[in-house]
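Re: your question from the hallway

Yes, I did run it. Sequences:
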Amino acid sequence: MPRNPQLNQHGELQHLLSIEGLPQDVVIHILDTARSFLPVSEREIKKVPLLRGKSVFNLFFEPSTRTRTTFEIAAKRLSADVVNLNIATSSQTKGESLIDTVANLAAMHADMFVVRHASSGAPYLIARHLTSDIHVVNAGDGRHAHPTQALLDVFAIRHYKGEFSNLKIAIVGDILHSRVARSEIHALTTLGVPEVRVVGPRTLMPAQVEKLGVRVFHDMATGLKDVDVVMMLRLQNERMNGALLPSAQEFFKSYGLTEERLAVAASNAIVMHPGPMNRGVEIDSAVADGSQSVILPQVTFGIAVRMAVMAILAGGG
Amino acid sequence: MNLRIANGLLVDPVAGTEHKADLFVAGETIVDEGAIPAGFRVDRVIDATGKVVCPGLVDLSARLREPGFEYRATLESELAAAVAGGVTTLACPPDTEPPLDEPGLVEMLKRRAASLRLAHVHPIGALTQGLRGERLTEMAELTEAGCVAFSQDDRPFADLTVLWRSLQYATTFGFPVWLRPEDPGLAAGGVAHDGEVATRLGLAGIPAVAETIAIAAILLLARETGARVHLCRLSTTEGVEMVRKARADGLPVTCDVSAHHIHLSEMDIGYFDAHCRLSPPLRSLRDREALVRGLADGTIDAICSDHTPIDDDGKQLPFGEAEPGATGLELLLPLALKWGAEANLPLARILERVTSGPARLLNLPAPSLAPGAAADLCVFDRDAWWRVEPSALKSQGKNTPFTGYELQGRVCATLVGGRLVYESPPPPDRKP
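Structure:
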């Protein structure tokens, strides 16, 4: 198998494509760096000059407002120039190939591409066709990975729980289609969380998911028992009625996070969600807005974590 | 032209024998071996010292891309690739554009192929019109035009009734039916084996049951109709077991496997290598082992190249968007030898799976080195290592997961009907 394409020959981060295969010290370094960036966003002048004169291209082959915005804010707070391209609506529809699109943008002297694509592995293909002075950040590819989301999630866990080595964590919902779940699993196992659980119906579990190092549960009562962190996943609308699930209501009835269900978790358990939430489908409003929810702080941490990733890749951090 | 193929190791896959001797070819046929026949005037000597001389390879599945996809490959390029790989006879699937569903198309293809005087081409006709899986083709007419069997290729049947009726109809006239077992619904949207690697990489899966359910349906209907069914490109442990059992029960079912699937598994996808996007998908290591064993014990009759030339536009894409398939004609021999060496089999038995085994499935005379046999021959150096460099392949398709592999077994010369149609350039350090 070829060398891990996201590390250079010195073992340093060249691209951020997936959490899988990242050494633990690289993950910890990103989290430490992110912590140092948290105060930047609270200052009156919310900028540091680490990426001054660098160009960051947001290449979104799939529509996204939230993720693209947080990357844009993070890049601007590092003083980079940011170009947003929604390629879903431009050259791809004119038949230009992915490789040609990227080659053209690289010729404009981009320093970094932030890539969101509907096909698993697309950022790897892009990274393979770039020279080593251009960095790629995967902002979500198909069902495969969403590494910055997972990094902000473990940042939040570290913030509230301190360390990882004594935690039980449950990831709940549509594991099959979730790039967030895959990246979270890798991040948690890399950081040494001793028990990572996945909870959901059999129709939403990928084949041999236990090989990723997780315990599989099909009901909330046992799946959430004594956990320290509950990580909910978004259920996409198109999965709600069909051969995978009968209805959103029935999903909520079996797997929706309510206060009663949360009661079996540890009393100081925190509740997370990558957003955007379907209230009343995967999570009850009382929990989403309740005292154990850290869903809004996650968004704040997301800026700092994305700043850290970009600074480490392109700013010599 | 009278040829003397001097001093080679003659391997006869049917007799299972190997011995060192000269072989004499006159015109289109083999005339003798051993001592030079009385009155034989040698026009040309092919030095086969240290080389193997065997019947030319027979490939059950090589896409030549004509008609319709000439930008991908042409008969010229792919038949040159065939003979460079020691393949002297091949069957081509009907998935051209238009599909091979009319006698005129088949006749034209046969005529074009014959005019090139390279490998023999045996078209597989479309089982249904336009391969749409709804209405039967004129199989008798197509057979007259040169089709040797009928297939639906990778396309689905509208429903099982069409499969049932097509087996009944083909059986009426004794036409063989070749089917690649895959349930279209269970495979829908999938791009990789539904297992550990697809889960890790977030690729939509094709479960093993997509194959086994289709095999179960085909075997039940074959039993019902008495049809002679050949299953193309098995990929699963359970699939091999079902065929083994059906044969033990007396059903005349045959099957093949692609050269890729006996060497690669889902693990080879690595970091989304689109060259490993194949149809059927590369499956688990356990499945690969079952295919290797099934081939050794004779449950699987033949290895095919499943040759599918695809250009960069079709492969330089994210894994799931890339077209499935790989080039294979020039790799068939070394990949068969690699399988045989790993299974510790004698050379004649290895070669049986790429010569007489597939020839039997095409209802061709058993390939032989005996006097009177057609001089379709392959001379190869079984010890020579070579590195797979796509740019050096004759095929227009440079798409192979074996890029950079060191493989053993290099074709030195290929004869079709007594004509020397391929000769490898001699190594630079030796005089020609």
